[in-house]
Each structure stands twice: as structure tokens, then as C-alpha cells.
Specification:
The complex is a heterodimer of chains A (739) and B (251). Chain A has 27 helices and 19 strands. Chain A is an alpha/beta fold and 739 residues long. The mean pLDDT of chain A is 95. Chain B is of the alpha/beta class and 251 residues long. In chain B, strands 3-1-2-4-5-6-7-8 form an eight-stranded mixed sheet. In chain B, strand 6, helix 4 and strand 7 (159-165) form a beta-alpha-beta unit. Chain B has helices at 53-61, 84-96, 111-120, 142-151, 173-184, 202-207, 224-238, and strands at residues 5-14, 22-27, 49-51, 72-76, 100-105, 123-127, 159-165, 189-196. The mean pLDDT of chain B is 91. Chain B has one domain: TIM Barrel (Alpha-Beta Barrel). Chains A and B meet through helix 23, helix 24 and helix 25 of A and strand 1 of B.
Chain lengths: 739, 251
Amino acid sequence: MDPWRNFEGALWRKKIDLADFIRHNYQPFTSEPAFLSPPSARTKRLWTKCQQLMDEERTAGGVLAIDTERVAEVTAWAPGYIDRELEVIVGLQTDEPLKRVVNPWGGWRMVEAACKARNIDPDPAMKKIFTTYRRTQNEAIFRIYTPEMRQARHLGIITGLPDAYGRGRLIGDYRRVPLYGLDFLITEKKNDLYALDNVDDTSIHLREDIADQIEGLERLGEMAKAYGSDLSRPAIDAREAIQWLYFAYLGAVKEQNGAAMSLGHTSPFLDIYLRRDLEAKTLDEEGAQELIDQLVIKLRLVRHLRTPEYDELFAGDPLWVTESVGGISEDGRPLVTKTDYRWLHTLRNLGPSPEPNLTVLWSPRLPQPFRAYTINLAIETSALQFENDELIRPIFGDDYGISCCVSATRLGKDMQYFGARVNLAKALLLAINGGRDEKTGEQVLAIPALTGNYLDWRSVWENYEQVLTWLSVLYSQTMNCIHYMHDKYNYERMQMALIDSNPRRHMAFGVAGLSVVADSLSAIRYTRVKAIRDERGITTGFEAEGDFPYFGNDDDRVDGLAVKVLRYFYASLAEQPIYRDAKPTMSILTITSNVVYGKKTGSTPDGRRAGHPFAPGANPMHGREKSGVVAAMRSLAKLPYEICLDGISYTFSITPRALGPSPSDRVQNLIRLIDGYFGAHGHHININVYSRETLVDAMEHPELYPNLTIRVSGYAVHFVKLSREQQLEVIERTIYERM
Amino acid sequence: MVTRGQIQSVQSFSTLDGPGTRCVVFFQGCPAGCLFCHNPESWAAQGGEEIAPEALLLRLERFRPFLQTPPGLTLSGGEPLFQPEFALALATLAQGEGWHAALDTCGWGPTDSFQQLVQGVDLVMFSIKHPLHPEALSKLNPASVLANWQLLSNFSTPVWLRYVLIKGWTDPPEALTALGRLAKEIPTLERIEIFPYNSLAESDWEDLHRDSPLFHEHSITVTETEVRQAETLIQKTAGLPPRLFPAFART
């Protein structure tokens, strides 16, 4: 049977071009989704089994089992099943569901720490190999770190770095496997490999990359063969297309424990296959939904083995299996298909869940039923995030996915070097303390000490410029070390094999603590702030002697300071030489790490006490948004996306009552709020609709709320999986009640 | 003509202060001193931010794209009646730009100003503190409030009556019956909103070193069911149409 029967278009047949294939073959769906089907009997039974397993996992303290005998590799495990009779989509990371992979490529210390936390001994032979014969990413990076890099790292000035775990962030274009089959893809890669000359490091480096990718594709074929699938040829029907696509993703998560393992934007692609089968009557709607439900079940079961320190940063065992729906095609048609609805419908068929991390690419031009459907679902589940398609598309085109939390990336065309973030608030304290760390008193860099009783705006800002310049040099050099070694010792051949051979590379820098810094600078600039110094001469307390504007109230005086800091720091980063000519981007994003960063930061001039959490992402500080949500959104929307292409994360929480009197009012009001925010050039928004009382109750009685999902800074988590500290921080956040 | 006013703050989005989605301008200054006030910072006649209506409207216009059409503006406080020229100028200006203007008032103020303002807005939200003994909960002049309430029947402006239910203070049957009688007097009455008392404002009072006897009372909050019972009592005894009590006002 011709796998490409009934497909239109010519370009995509000759060379890899998914956008062209989709443009010629997809069919927008603009009506009400009355067609949706409940879960099949098989899916229900399968999901019940999985839920039991996940209960056992929770009872066991978060990890059910670890395979300590095998090293992460795509063909390391024999096929694994949950229940062969019930599974229409097959494939597990290991040979049993929820059994976690040991991944020593990133570093042996992390394997030991993660096993030790679960009272398990790692395999001695494996230990010998990875401590004696094989260098790991982590070891390689630390061998070349300078003392200055180590200091900035241990003081928490540069923090969350992917030097001890997989950097993630890469999205393989998993659609390529079903559309073309592995033989075609391997031939294309070989053509790329032989077309390159051998004259310098750059081209030989690239040639080695491509050779690795080819090997990865060959191994992927072996893995799928063990499950009885022949990936060498294209998929012939929808079940194969979804199975092939999942195998391609599975290959990646078998080998890589990257912080974010996103899926991309698959629904318009899969819809083409589902529609072809539905039209041929070889599949019915229940069958179509079953395929998507079962794919999503598999994605909900992906796990990685993490250390306790990692869990503290990224709470709730997240994977960031981010999958986008919606968006508008460059030819003006909505990219919404029936399968976008089938994806979203899994939240009802299987219940709310943090994973996959469903992201709606939002536009006023989306079909009205789709807008209302997604907003309804967001209110019902608090499991969706929204990104501004009208802002992203002009820069990234229409075939992009969201990597990790909020970062746009062209599918199969871009890669990202994830760079975690710097703590801007600690950097400000360095400026105030003459370059000394406010906690330890260590001298970090040499700048003039400030001696007056009151902080002088001009002197503080001049010092801050010096700190930010110094930091941008150190930060970019640190990133260069990390990614050189990551490429060398922990290369993601499975994902990179499904990206163009010489992709556009982004160096994804990030900042945390922006609202603390903006408010602190505002205090210094618009009122008198007294510096209270200890016996070491370190400023440990601040007294503001008057009122000053806070970020989040649509007040240009302070919002402008936030923008000023971003522009200065980005301009400085952009001047630095970057590994493999990557293009610098920047994010304002914290995940749940705003709690940890706050813990490591002394008191700040805005009145925030030492150790107190930062606001998440780009949010205004808790309780300082005195003028309500619209004013807060207007402040956020002033942050310039063009220099923050890695994303500006905003987490918005509201009680149902404050959103509107009736369910339909709530939907209409929320649509209007998001249109308003995105119309003002806001980039991203997490929507949480819940009451404070629900969260307090869930904290006290977690057993009653196993599925309570909330959105935090770019991803969703089960509330009950957060630490108590993080739960309290979420509860303390501004939840608009009185609006 | 420059009619500058004193405002305490601006709320950029509300669904609880009138129909649709709205901005709320809190006026500075209120002599009522209600024991359950949720905004005690606005009492002082002096302070706040001095601003011209034109400048204030420009600020509000920035919020318009986030609001439903027509965008709503609620004059609240504080007590708008104590800055009548400014309140009227702001309402008129906003209406000219397509805003729906509502007056949120305790009804205590000079009769002339009250009449002018009632005619100059699209909706009056009149908070009755207590239909019989407002002096027990506030410094309001009962006669002045009552006179202004009765004046409402001379105008075509729609009216919403608002009432806070506090156990042992505002919920005795004789009070609720009297409230129903007052409601009956106004032909343009569109809605009666009964709010359960809450102590959310307690920390705001503490910040100002103020205290309210209500904070020392126990069990003065009411349940949803008690709110519903009070509504039924008001509606039945006065023979009011049930449509005046929208279900969502109780949620």
C-alpha cells in the first residue's frame, strides 16, 4: 500500500519539509467539537491500571523502581508492556512501566545521589566504567571551570546550570519518522555528511555529529523492530503514524534525561493521517480518540531519575512533554484541526494532568468555538498555558513548537542551548556591597564600595552596570564550557537526528528576580533608602523612608526600570562570543526555583526579607499588584519580547468568583483578558482558576486531591507533589479575589 | 474648568462592582466610618493622589482593551458624594467616551450633589448599612441617608441596593423586613445584592492602628444558606419580584 496515497503537494516528497506537507494536506476545523468521543473500554481499563501504578509510585515516596543494571541507551531494554491486550500504542522507556533509567552520561555523582536518596546501590561495574574509563559531561565541565565560575555557581549568582544534568530543550521533529521512514532520513543524513569538507574543527565537528545521528537512527530502527514495527519505511495508516512518532520520541527519552523533553506540535500532522483513515472508514471516531488517548497515557508515564537537589529546583517531577495546539498558518488559515480537540479532550477522558504540558498558541483569529473550548478547559482544569501566536509567528514562522515551558523553537530547524539563569537580585546586592556576596562576605568582583548612610541612585546604578557587564562575560563563558562538553560527552543523537544537520542555534540565557530588582531600584530612585550594615560592612537591611511605585501597577516609572535592566544585560550578553555561533536569547523564567533563589538571597531594598521567595517568572512580587490584574498585565506586556525570545513567563491566578458571576461570563471575561494581554504584546500566560481555600485544604488532605493540577511558571504540576515550602509559596501568591 | 479630585487608588479589573467588567476608582475621603469597611485607608479627607478627571480617564483608557464592551467605570471609595464636582466631571467625561458609569455610594451627602450625580450616571449602587439603626454600625446621619434614598424614585436611573449581612447586627427579621419596605419604594430598583460579612479587611485596619468592635465578636459571619434565607425573607415580606435577587450575587 502506498503510504503517501491521497496526499497532495510535491516539495515535501523530494526533501524533508514538514511545513510544506502540512500546508498541502491539513484541513482546518472551525465548528463546534460535537464529534468528540469518550475513552474506549480498552483505554479505560488500561488507564485504571496505570493509575494504580502511579498510586503505588506515590506511596513508595515518588519512585517505584530503578533499573541499575543497564545504561541509558535506545536498545538497552527488551520490549516492555503495561498490558499487551489493552495497548494500541506500545513502548516503554524500560521493560516495565514507571521503572526509571540510570543515565550516567551526564555524570556519575548524580546517579549515586539519586540512588542513595532511594536507598539503592548503583551497579559497581557501571560505576567503574563511568569513573575510570569514560568521562562524563559533569566531570568534563568541572575540569575546565575557572575558580570564578565555581564561585558564582556556589554562591547562587549563576544558578540551575545544566552542568550536572541533561540540558534538554531540544525538540526532535518526531513527525519525520512516520512521514518518511528511517531509510529516507538516513540517506538524507548521509548526503549531508558526505557533502561537508574536512578543513577545520567546525566542519569535522559537524561531521561527527551527523555520524552519531545516523547511528542513532539505525538503533531506533532496531528498538522498534523488537516491538514488531518496521520503521525503515513510512507509516501507512494513522495507527502506524502515531506509533512511529511515539517510537521516535521514546528513543529520545530512553537515552536522554534532559530537563525538558518536549514533543512539539503534532496535531495538524496526525490529523492528516486520522482523517484519511476516517474517510476510508478503516477507523471510527472512537478509534481515533483511542489512539490519541493511548499516546497521551504513554507520555504521562515517562519518568527520569533525579537527585533531591534537582527536585527542589524543579518540583513535582516534571518532564515538560510540551505539546502545542492551535495557532494560525502563515497562509492565514487556522491550524486548528479535529485532532487539536482530540488532544485537549484527553484532559477530560483521562482527567487533568500536568503532562503532557498542553500549550495553546493563541490568536484572536482562531475559530471562536476553539477559543471558547480552550478557555473553558483552562478554567475547569488549570492545566493549560497560552502563548501569543501573533507575537511568535512573525519571528519563528508557523511550524514551531514550545520547548520546555515557554520557549518557541522552529521544529526540525532550531536547537537551543539551555542556560538556566542568573539571579539579578543577588547581582544588585553585589553592586550595593562593593562586589561582596551579601551572605558569605566573599569578594566576588572589584567595584567601588558604597559608604553613605543612604543609597545614592546614580552610584548604585553605575555599580550595577559594572556587575551586569562582568556577569554577562562570566555567564556566557560558563555556558560555552557547558555546551562544548555536553556536545562532546552527552550528545543527544536521537533528537539531533530529527533536526536539520546544521540548525540555527540559540544560546538560551535567563534571568530571575526581575520584579525584586525593579522594585528595589524604584525604592532607591523614588524615595530615600537607608542602608543598614553589619560589622563586616555588608548591607543586611534596608529602610525605605517613603512610598515608591511597585512593578505590576502599570506605572512607567518602575516598569521602565525593569526594561532598563533587561536591555542593559541583554546588550551586554549579545557582545560576547558564543559557542558554535549560537544566537543569544533570554528568558524571564523560574519554574519553581523562585523559592530556592529567594532562600539564597539576602534582604533587598524593596523590603523583601532575606530568604523570602521571589515571584515566579516575570510576575510582580506577591501582594504588590495594588491595581488589579489588568494593570499587572500591562506592566508585564512592557517587557520586550524581541530581546527575550526565550520567553517571558507570567502566572496568573484568580478565583472563579472574581472572574465573573456565571460560567459563560467567566469564559468571555477570560478571553477578553487574554486578548487584551496579548494585544499589548504579552508573550505567555499560565491560567489558574481556583480558590485559596481549595489549596489550603489540599495541603492538609493531599489524599483527597491526587489530581489537583496547578500551573506554575511555564508548566503544570500536581499540587500535592510540591514540597510544603513550595505549596505555601503558591498559596501566598497573589490570587485575585476581590478584583 | 479644572475640577481636580483626590483618589485613593484605581482597580483595573472588577466583576463585583457593577455589571460586566469594570474599573473602579476609589475616592479619597469618607465620613461614614462603617465598622465593616473594607477600605479604611480611604477615610481621611486629605491625602491620596490629586488628579484631574481628564488625566484619570487617560489612565483608565489603557485598561479598555481588557474589558468587555461597554467598559464599566465604578465611582467608589471613600465616598464620591463628598467630591461631587469631580465625580460628576469624571462620569460625564467617561460616558462621552462610551464608558458605563456607576456610582457606588452610602447615600450620605448634600441633596443637591446627590441629585446631580444620580442623573449623571448610568447606575446607582446604594449601600444601605442598616435600614433602622445605621448609627449602630457607622457615623451616618440616618435622616440624610433616608431622604436621599427616597429621592431615587424621582429619577429614571437604575438602582442596585447593596447590603452586608452580619449575624446579630444586620440580620434580625425586623431589619430585613424594613429593608424590604425601603426597596419597595424605588420603582427603578433592578437588583438587591446581599453580601455575607467577611473579616478580610482586618489587617488593613491593623495597619492603620484602628480597631473595630466587629473584630472582637465571635460567629458574626453568615453561611450561604443564611444569605439565601435572608433574601427570601426580604422578598416575601415586601412582596418583591424574585428577579431582584440574581443567583450569582449569592455565590
